[in-house]
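Z., the sequence and structure:
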Amino acid sequence: MASPAPTPRPGDQLASATDTTRVIVIRAPQQAAGPIECGGTPMVPAAEAPAPSPADDAPGTLIGKRYVDAADTLELLCTASGSGHLAYAGEPLTIKAPKALPASD
């Protein structure tokens, strides 16, 4: 079994050990507060990921969406959807809201 990634760094590619979820770290805190998890299991470097199991019908992560923690110190981009939900240091990650563009009146 592959070991979890120690401290996430921007550009790291992580994969779930339990489903088909894959993410890229966009922004990461200087000091890791805990592991990045998917479906309750720490994510592993994508190169060390086991073969994914078939996905359920109800995705927990959505491809192309950015996920952030409550403090907005960690940002992940989902590159492959899966049935697990993302968490960091035991706290669930949420989908990042799009930035509002200025009005062009």
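The two ends are 57 Å apart (CA to CA). Residues 1-5 have pLDDT under 50 and may be disordered.

Let me know what you think.
H.
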